[in-house]
Automatic annotation (TrEMBL):
This is WYL domain-containing protein. Pfam families: WYL (PF13280). The lineage of its organism: Bacteria, Pseudomonadati, Pseudomonadota, Alphaproteobacteria, Sphingomonadales. It comes from Sphingobium ummariense RL-3. Transmembrane segments: none annotated. Residues 44-106 form the WYL domain.
């Protein structure tokens, strides 16, 4: 499914270059797997709306060890894996892109304040920073279907938490 979506995006962008009028903004959702029948947690709809509106979001995030931290993020995309959804966002606290499992996110506040710049530019920077983000799209064979946050190469160290 990931290859098909990339192929479709390439065709759309090609049509755009040939003069067709198409909005080629980066998608706010990225499908990494297609076999899951798992329903999204309720906060996904709020996060998806914040991605579309490019709004800052205040969250409370619980890491794998159960430690909770409060953060202000700029959500740019939701990645769908077999059994987990991951929010890609700029984290103001870390001044870096981070990945958050949406089942561990509690949305505290969705601000009316838009984050600076355009989401498309942030997605491009995120992809450049995480050159191996495509590896995430094909790594669905883990037990339980979950991907550890440190698999994304940007999980905070114990000193950062």
């Amino acid at each position: 499914m990931a290859q098909s979506s990339e192929s479709a995006l390439a065709k759309i962008l090609s049509a755009k270059r040939s003069g067709a009028v198409i909005d080629h903004a980066q998608p706010s959702l990225i499908a990494a797997a297609s076999v899951s029948r798992r329903a999204d947690p309720p906060q996904v709809a709020l996060l998806r709306d914040a991605v579309r509106r490019q709004c800052k979001v205040r969250i409370s995030y619980q890491d794998a060890k159960g430690a909770t931290s409060d953060r202000t993020i700029w959500p740019i995309a939701i990645v769908y894996f077999d059994e987990v959804r991951v929010l890609a966002a700029w984290c103001e606290r870390r001044s870096a892109f981070r990945h958050f499992r949406v089942d561990r996110v509690q949305v505290t506040t969705i601000s009316d304040e838009r984050y600076p710049g355009r989401r498309q530019a942030l997605v491009t920077k995120w992809r450049e920073q995480d050159r191996d983000w495509r590896a995430m799209l094909t790594d669905s064979g883990r037990s339980g279907g979950y991907v550890r946050s440190d698999d994304f190469g940007s999980a905070p160290t114990s000193e950062e938490k």
